[in-house]
Amino acid sequence: MTIRRHNRPVLPGTKITRYRTFLPTGDINISTSPGGRNKEKTKQTPRELIITEVAVTQSSDMRESKRDWIFRVQVPNLEKNEVVYVVGNLPELGAWNHNQAIQMSQEHSSRRGSPIMLDNNSSGDFYNEDGDNAADGIFEEDGRIFSQKVALPIDANIEFRYFIAVICESNGTKNSAKTLIIRRWETHMTPRVIKRNTPSNFDNDTLPDPDKFGYHNNYSKIEQGWLTDETVIQFKLFNNPVKLWKNRLQNKKVHIKMTPVNLVRHNSLELQQFGGECIDDSLSMDTQDIVDQPAFTSITEIAVMNDEEARFKSQEQFGRPHNEDEFLIFNVAVRYPETIGYLVDYYVHSSRCFPGEPPNHIGFSYILPGALQPSVGLLTVPITSTKHRPIGQLTVEYVVIKPIPDHPWDMSISYAKHWEQRWSGLDVGHRGLGTSFKFETKNCANVRENTVASLKTASHHGADMVEFDVQLSKDLIPVIYHDFYVSISMKRKKQIEAMDMLEIPVKDLTLEQLHLLKVYHVAEGREKNPRFFDEDLEDHQPFPTLQTVLQELEQHVGCNIEIKWTMQLKDGTFELNHPFDLNMYLDIILKVVLEYGGHRKIVFSSFNPDICAMIRLKQNKYPVVFLTQGITSKYPTYHDPRCQTIPMAMRHALTADILGINVHTEDILRDPSQVKLVKDAGLIIFCWGDDNNDKGTIQYLKKLGLHAVIYDKIDEYNAKEVKESIFLVDARESQKELIALAHCNQTPQTQISTPLNTEKEYYLNRPSTTTSLKNIIGGDSIYSVPNMKLPTNCEESIEINEMTKDFSACANTFGHSVKANGASDVICKQPTPLPEFYGEDEAAKDCL
C-alpha cells in the first residue's frame, strides 16, 4: 500500500480527505510536486491500493450548510442496460427532473464478507478493505445494491424517490442529446424524506442500511414510466394474422419474433460512440448480412392477452409460438422512429425434431417506418422464405404512441394508480345530471346533458364525480358533447314555414359555428321536436369547452373524462370517419387537462383500448380506466377482442398498467362473480349503463363492491343523507384535524409563534381521517408537525365545526399532494394560512 501526501501547509479549518484509488498492474504515471512543480515518470508497479491525502479547505459556513448523505438502495430483477437513479425536490437531486437526476453506482466486493468502505473519489464507487473493485457486484438475496454520496443542504427537508431507467444515447444529429427512458419508478404519495438538520447517515466505519426499491411506508408501490423522449410502437396480432401458403407449413405452430433494425448506416467511430449492440444472434445468417447496424437503445417486449402473460416481458430467443385466436402485442420503444424498421422472423419446428431442439427459421418480413405514418393503421406485408420466395403474408394492426412535445414533466407525484380504500361505491353523475335525449322523456334529465349547468347541478346533489364526453371541434378546441353528429335546421325554398334537419359531424364545425348556429341533438332533429328552450342561459348552452368546465366546476368535484373516438364494429364498419391524427388529438386534450385540472380528482376513460394505453404512456399524473361493453345484447359488438368481454378488458388493463376498467352493468348482472375477478387482479372497477337508473340496482352494485356507479338523474336516485362529494368530506375532515391539532398545542398568553405557511415541511405525513388525534399527537413519527399556537383572544366556546365552515381552500387538496397555493382560512378573525396536506392516507393505503 502506498500513501501519497501533497506537501502543503494545513490551514485552520482544513479537512484531510483520503482518496482511495485502485491501480491495476502495468505502466502508470506517478505525480510528485517538489517545490510546487509537477513531474511525471513511468514505473512498472504491482497491483496495489493508492491512498492520497488531500487537504481541502472548508469554510465554517460551508460545513454548517451542507452535509454528505449516502443514498443506498437494493434493486431486484435489474435488466440489462438498466441504471438506477435518485431524484428529489432540490437542485442537488435534480429538482424532480428525471434528466437531472443522480445516477447511482453499483457496490462492488471481491469476496463475500469483506467490509465495504467508502471512497471519496468522483465515481462514487465503494471498495472492500483490500481496495478491490471487482467486476462482479454485490449480490444479495433481494438484489444488487447501488449507492451514491451527495452533498445536501442541512437546513431543508429533502424529498426523494428512486427510479430505474435506460440511457438513450444521441444519434449524432444537432438537436439530439442523451436522455433517459424511464422503466420503473417509486410512486408512493408521500416520497421518501430526510428531515432538516439530520446529520450525515454514515461515518468512517459504517454505511446506512440500504432502502428496498419500491418499498416505503410499509408497502410497495412501483409503476412503469411514461414517454419522455422516446416513441412506442405497438403491433397487434389477432384474428389469425399469419397465413402460410406452403402445404408443408399448414397446421404447424409458428414462432414469431420482432426485432427493430436501424436503417441508417454509421461509421465505426459513431458506432463506438453510441455503444450499440449488434442484432440478436438468433437471426438467420441470410438476414444478418442485411441488418448490419443496431437499432440504438430500443426495447422490445411482448404481451399475450391471457391470464399468465398479460404483462409485458422480454422476448425469447426464437420468439413466441402463436396459437390460433390469441391476441399478441409487440411493444417497441425507440427514440428515432423515422430511422427504425422492424424485422419479423418466423420459426417452425420440423416434424422430426427432438425435445429441446430449436425451431427452424422459415422466413421473415419487413415493416418499414414509411408505412407507419398515421398514428393507427392496418398493414399486410409478405412473408419471404430464406430462399427469397413469397410463402405467406402477415396482417398486423399498429398504433404509434408519441410523447407530448415540450411538456415539463416532473416526478414529484403521480395519481396514475392511486385509489384509496374508502373511495368505494362513489356516485358519478352521467353526463352531469343525466342523459336528456332518451326515447321516453320521463327517463330524461330536466337539464340539458353535458352542459355546465348539468354538471353543477349534479355536484349540488352530492355527486362524487361527474362523467362527461370530450371531442375536438374543427378548429381543434376540446368541447363537451356525447354524439358524433348534430342536427342543423334548414329552411326549404318557397316553404318558409317548413324546416328540414341536416345531420353534420361535430368535427366538421368550428367552435364559433357550434356556439352561434341553431343546432339540435340528433334525437331532436329526427323527431323535429326541440326539448330545450334555454338559449339565453349561458350555463345551459351545449358545447362548453373543456377549459371552461374545468374552470367553472368546484375543485372538490371529481371528473371522469371520456375521450370520444370512432370505433370499428365487428362487421368492419366505423362509427365515424375521423380526420384527426390520434396523437395530435390526444395531446390537445391532455394539455388542457394538465394546465387547468388543478388539484381535482380526474380519471380518463375511453372505449378505445389503444387510447387508454396512449393516455397512460403520454402522461404520469392522472389515472385511466378502460370502458368496455362486455357481453351485451343492447349494442353492436366491436371489432377489437379486448372490448368484447370483461376478462379481456381486465387483461388489457394489466397490459397497459392502467387503474382499472369501467364495465357495462348488463354484463355484471349477468355474472356478478366478475366483480371479484377484477378486484382480485388489483384493478378498480366502475360500471355504467341504463340498468343503473334504479335505486335498488345502485345499492346492489355498491354491495358487490364496485368502486363507482355511473347513473342518470342523480338528483332522484342519490341515496346520500348529506348531498356532498366524498372528496369534499375528506377535505373538511382534514381541516378539522389540523385545527384540533392546533388547539392541542395551544399555550396561554402566546401569540402564533411561527405563522403557518404552505411548505411541505409543516405537514409531511397527513394522518388518516380514521386515525385518532391522540395517536397523531402522541406518536413518534419521523415527520414532525411544528407547534401551532392559537391567539389567546380566541373564545373557547368556538366549535371546530364553526371554524371550518369555509373550507374551500382546504378542499383543493382532497387526496392530493399540492404545491403551495397561499390558501388561508380565518381562525378567530385572524388570517392563518393553512398548511398543505399530503393526500396519501397511510392507514387506508392504496387499494392497488
From TrEMBL:
GO terms for molecular function: glycerophosphocholine phosphodiesterase activity; starch binding. PROSITE patterns: CBM20 (PS51166), GP_PDE (PS51704). SUPFAM superfamilies: PLC-like phosphodiesterases (SSF51695), Starch-binding domain-like (SSF49452). The keyword Hydrolase applies. GO terms for biological process: glycerophospholipid catabolic process. Coiled coil: none annotated. Residues 61-215 form the CBM20 domain. CDD domains: GDPD_GDE5. Residues 425-721 form the GP-PDE domain. Signal peptide: none annotated. Keywords: Hydrolase. The keyword Hydrolase applies. SMART domains: CBM_2 (SM01065). Pfam families: C2_GDE1, CBM_20, GDPD. Residues 25-44 are annotated as: Disordered. Belongs to the glycerophosphoryl diester phosphodiesterase family. This is Glycerophosphocholine phosphodiesterase GPCPD1-like isoform X1. The lineage of its organism: Eukaryota, Metazoa, Ecdysozoa, Arthropoda, Hexapoda. The gene is LOC112467207.
